Amino acid sequence: MSNATSAHSVVEPSATTKRIAGIIVVLYAIVTMVPLAWIFMTSFKSPPDSISYPPKLVFTPTLEGYCNLFTTRTRQTPEYIQSLGPPQSTCDEITRSRNMVIAGPSNYWPRFTNSMVIAFGSTFLAVFLGTLAAYGFSRFRVPLADDLLFFILSTRMMPPIAVAIPIYLMYRELGLSDTALGMILLYTAVNVSLAVWLLKGFIDEIPREYEEAAMIDGYTRLQAFRKVVLPQATTGIAATAIFCLIFAWNEYAFAVLLTSGSAQTAPPFIPTIIGEGGMDWPAVAAGTTIFLVPILVFTILLRKQLLRGITFGAVRK
Amino acid sequence: MAEIRVENLRKQFGDFAAVEDSTFTVNDGEFLALLGPSGCGKTTTLRMIAGLELPTSGRILLGGEDVTFNRASARDIAFVFQLFALYPHMNVRRNIGFPLLSQGVPKAEIKTRVEETARLLQIGHILDRSVSGLAGGDRQRVALGRAIVRRPKCFLMDEPLGTLDAEFREVMVHELRELHNRIHATTVYVTHDQHEAMAMADKIAVMNHGVIEQYGTPQEIYARPASMYVADFIGSPPMNFLRFHSGLETGATSVTVGEVAVRVPQVHAVREPGELALGVRPEHVRFSDAAPLRGSVYGSEYLGTNQIVSVETAQGLVKARVPAEQSFAIGENVGLELDHDRLSLFDCASGKAVPSSLTAEARHG
């Protein structure tokens, strides 16, 4: 690096290469950010602004989308609204300006909570089971290990919709349809294959000598696993957890089929907003924006591990 | 500290016998080197003593107690790995204290014992450093510290110097032996390096293809190799073999190599006529114009204090270690005189040494 002017390094990319690479990355980032920015902006637009053509880049921001997202409203006569006295909140005021009053909270929060419980619950289970299974496959002579690993992976080979009907029927028989437990089990089953495969790679990279040393130092295998293997697998576990969480959080096909009421998650709920009183795009955009927050926070918290996880093979042990 | 007894130990991996019928005893406080090429079963033997591998058959006794099928954690032994296996997520202090933690030793005592150990190994100044930044020698010392901190029954070491560079290895060989002299821990040390084994060990077991070819002091193994394999593996350059065809009678004191009669230590066995080999160490060959055993100089290797001269004879190449001042012309015809009382005789078919007054010394001495 320091001798860039006098010597030409073989492995270090040149300044021009770096600049070009940087430009490509920035362009790609902009392209992928456009839909997100669009949704974020739409969530602060008024309904007329949201459907205006050409799209407005400059507009007066309003919380109407968020108010509509969290409430159900009924249309009233202006006289009735007049008789109500001063508005209780900003949302109250916005709603009244549209000749409506707030009737009660919407189902968004319960659905969002369902998503949190189901996504984090299934991620925890998938990573927990995946770590143990991956450790077993990595360290012990499991009979037919390769075939078992293939079977585990094969659960991800078909599109969810192909197995949706049998699962729907099974769940109805078992009383698992429209329950959080049912969804957690289902997402765990789907994610555990990913978790086993990813984590096996990470655990294979951890030399066995560490556990052997710990066992000689007087620990049982389980203690050695907990005190020596786990701390070194955190990178892999974090990376795996993010992938599992993203899947469970965004999953739509199973959710729309198997949940309709109390266990419904946010992805199938958000489109239903469209049906209630016209095309309420700002409310949909607001729902989507809030929906993005947990995954964003989780990813930012674990981004160091994620980066190290993805480049794992490149890091010298 | 305790004695280690290994009885008829055997380990089979599928069709492959990694260790066959090993029997040996390491006395309390003794330093044994398991020496052999890679794949000879020395590491497998060590891992079975440690409990990291279970034997197919046989017994292992530690201090008289049968531990053959005990867990590694229940054996109270310490193991130094080739790549040290220092826990990367702990600093030096926690690495060394880790075995004590499993025994439920109180925190304050762990602290004193870790510091005591660090002082012994002169690594007190790096106790709070992370292990990932340490140089090879310091890693080695930390690994040793982790082994000695809990005063185990015995130490097992699997080529602990294998990854160090040559210069540093000599320093560590010296340090390890010093350490052994101070704490007198029963030690089994696996290595493929004969110099390490010779320099450190009280006893050496030379292994080949899962079998212990010879078990004895470094002196015995060097002077009275039990087989052609051992003779060839130990010493650099290794023992010379002069191959000839003959039979042997009990009490014979000379053999005919080619046309020449060579005096040998008195033979204590009978051999039907067959391929035999006369083994002679390079330092037991001298040049003498009058000697009947002749050859022509093939080349020489200057080593400073002495030189290795290769001589082509009718029975094969003979290397002689002679003073550095002597000079030879390539192709010069020379006579070779052998130290007759230091010669070994081998049966080429079995590769084993033929019993003689030389090998008898080994049994009685």
From TrEMBL, chain A:
Main location: membrane
ABC transmembrane type-1 domain: residues covered: 112-302
Transmembrane segments: 20-41, 116-136, 148-168, 180-199, 228-249, 281-302
Keywords: Cell membrane, Membrane, Transmembrane, Transmembrane helix, Transport
Its membrane topology: Multi-pass membrane protein
Record flagged with keyword Transmembrane: yes
InterPro entries cross-referenced by the UniProt entry: BP-dep_ABC_trans_perm (IPR050901), MetI-like (IPR000515), MetI-like_sf (IPR035906)
Subcellular location: Cell membrane
Family classification: Belongs to the binding-protein-dependent transport system permease family.
Protein name stated in the entry: Carbohydrate ABC transporter permease
